[in-house]
Structure formats: C-alpha cells, structure tokens
TrEMBL record:
A Gene Ontology molecular function term of the record: thiopurine S-methyltransferase activity
Organism phylogeny: Eukaryota, Metazoa, Ecdysozoa, Arthropoda, Crustacea
Region named Disordered: 145-167
Keyword Metal-binding: no
Any Gene Ontology biological process: methylation
Name of the featured protein: Thiopurine S-methyltransferase
Domain of life: Eukaryota
Keyword tags: Methyltransferase, S-adenosyl-L-methionine, Transferase
InterPro entries membership: SAM-dependent_MTases_sf, TPMT
Keyword flag Transferase: yes
Amino acid sequence: MAAMGTEDDRLRMYCCDIFKMDMESLGKFDAVWDRASLVAIYEEDREKYAKVIKALLAPDFRYLISTTQYTPLEVYSGPPRNIPTALVEKLFSDVCELQVLEETTRPKEVIEQWGFDYYVETALLLTPRPPDYYSRVALIPVQHPSPPFVGPGRPHPRQARADPNTRQAIDCLSSQGR
Ligand SMILES: C[S@@+](CC[C@H](N)C(=O)[O-])C[C@H]1O[C@@H](n2cnc3c(N)ncnc32)[C@H](O)[C@@H]1O
C-alpha cells in the first residue's frame, strides 16, 4: 500500500486496491465522501466494498455518497453504473440511516442524446443507525415504577428522541398513564 501525506500529517493519500488495504492501520474515519466510487465498483464487488467502508466508519460518522440512476442500455451500463437508492439502502441500512439530500436530472435533450429514458444524480447522506437496543431499553417504562431515561445502560434523551417510533411508543404509553 503506497501512502503519502502532508508534513503536518493532517492529510494522507493511499494508492492501493481498496480490497487489499491494511484496514487496521487506517483507523476510523468521521467522514467519507464517496464521489464516483460506489458507482465505479464492479457489481460483484459491491457487498465487499460496503463491508470495507462500514469497517472504516467512526461511531458518529457522516457518509456522503453521490450516485447515478438510469436504465442501463445494452451498449452502456457504466461506469458510472446504475445505483438505485434502494440498493444503497440494501448495502448499508444494517448500520446506516439514509437521507436523500438532492436529486438532479440532466436536461431532457442531453438525456435523449445519451439514449437514456431518465438520468438522475443523487446525493445521499448516511448517518449511524441507532442500535436496536435503544428502542428496547427506551420501552422499559412499561415496568413499574418507570425508570429514568438517563443513567448507566440507558440511552441519552437525545438518542431516544432521535427515534420517532420509540418516541411515539413512549408518548403513547405515557398517555395511558403507565
Ligand atoms: C470514476 S473514478 C472517480 C475518481 C474520483 N473519486 C473522482 O471523483 O474524480 C473511480 C475511481 O475508482 C478507482 N477504483 C476502482 N476500483 C478500485 C479499487 N478496488 N480500489 C481502489 N480504487 C478503485 C478507479 O481507479 C478510479 O480512479
């Protein structure tokens, strides 16, 4: 793995096959900007690629992906390859929540000239999915008396609030006087 960096070591660049990286030596990343990367990966390597990226994410990561979506043609299927948002969800939803930030389309004439029926570029933001146990722990109020929300092994209120289903369940239980 060839690496080079700035003198202050704030920026390092690696030149290597992503699938042959020494993952341990890289550490974790707060932010990933996936620009023309997932769309360039071979279809058969996508699961492997997602596994690599997920292993590199720090706990409170932000992962930005730009994708292209179109109906592949017999004469052209990329790269950039067609990456429907549902596919990103399938690859990453075990640990990420997904938000579509922007969807843009090219002018109709350009799309027709390229031979596509549609061509959409999408910016997606992936953020940590709260672990299931937050929901389970947050539903503890069914016990009597209700334990406080803040404490060892309990989610911080911000995390409890972040999950609308949990919040709804808590509100519902509270309104029933439990
Ligand atoms: C379309 S280019 C995008 C480059 C850059 N991110 C940009 O936005 O201009 C896709 C890049 O992915 C690189 N690539 C594809 N498979 C790779 C792999 N297994 N490991 C590392 N790089 C890979 C290619 O060499 C190419 O430089």
